[in-house]
Amino acid sequence: MTRGLSKKHQQSSQQDKDIGIDVHQLARQIFQSKEFIEGVSSLIKKAIAPLQQRIKLLEDRLEKLESSHNHLATYDRRLNLRIHGIPEVQGENVEQLVIDTCSSIGVNITSGDISVYHRLKIVTSRKVPDCSVLFRELDCFVLGEEY
After folding, report:
1. Model confidence, pTM
2. DSSP code at position 87
3. Cα–Cα distance between 92 and 146 in angstroms, integer?
4. What pLDDT, on a 0 to 100 scale, did the predictor assign at position 140?
5. Same domain as 56, residue 34
């Protein structure tokens, strides 16, 4: 079989020489031509366009999921403490208020133990807005218990 192909190749090469065509040179010129390069480039761009759109959609979706995850993590109930009934004072320091409140019940924390703190909007019949505190670690406010 290989012998037959080799014979045909030799015949084809001889025919090319007879008509004065250098196939390798011709192929090189075609592949280097502006038209060929632009044509291939156009095909590649058409093939890539839907993939780029898909990537953009996935990036947008990932961004939304990360934002949603961050929001959920901020209000993770295991690390979140809600304090009710402490009157709001103009210019108050909510962080110090949380530290003092915890201290009054025997839990010693520092500002380093607190990740996020703020007053919540009033959404119930209560007249005093609650304080929400997100701790960095659960251990900082567990009373004498070990895990």
Report:
1. 0.44
2. P
3. 34
4. 60
5. yes
Do 9 and 66 lie in one domain? The reply is yes
Q: Look up tokens 């020489």; give the residue.
A: 17
Q: Are residues 11 and 62 in the same domain?
A: yes
Three-state DSSP state, 137 = coil
Closest CA to 83 of 73, 91, 95, 74: 95
Q: In sequence order, what DSSP letters do the residues of 17-53 get, joined into one string? A: HHHT--HHHHHHHHHHSHHHHHHHHHHHHHHHHHHHH
One domain for residues 52 and 87: no
17-35 pLDDT per residue, tens: 666 678 788 889 998 999 9
How many domains is the chain partitioned into structurally?
2
**CA 40 remoteness from chain centre:** 33
Q: What is the pLDDT of residue 61?
A: 96
Nearest to 100 by CA among 120, 86, 89: 86
Domain limits at 85?
A: 80-141
Residue spans of alpha helices (H) in 20-140: 23-32, 34-74, 94-104
Domain boundary residue, one of 24, 47, 71: 71
